């Protein structure tokens, strides 16, 4: 039997879904804006460049206490 811990555990599935969901949301919004401005490929590229760090930050903000 394990002793009770005072820190909440890290939910890997939840952390992965926050990372992927946030990144894909930023990519989708940027691609839509790029499409509206005339070139969706540049919007997709900009969204990927911006979305990955935002996804990492949001995951850290949500699950940073578990580290």
Brief characterization of the structure:
With 67 residues, the protein is mainly α.
Characterization of the model:
- With 67 residues, the protein is mostly helical.
- The chain has a domain of 36 residues.
- Helices cover 75% and strands 0% of the residues.
- Helix 1 runs antiparallel to helix 2.
Main attributes of the structure:
67 residues, mainly alpha, 2 helices
Q: Please, how many helices?
A: 2
Q: Mean of residue pLDDT?
A: 89
| H-E order | HH
* Class computed from helices, strands and strand pairing: mainly alpha
Sheet with the most strands? none
Strand content: under 5%
Q: How is the secondary structure organized here?
A:
Layout lengths: L11 H26 L2 H24 L4
Helix pairs in contact: 1-2
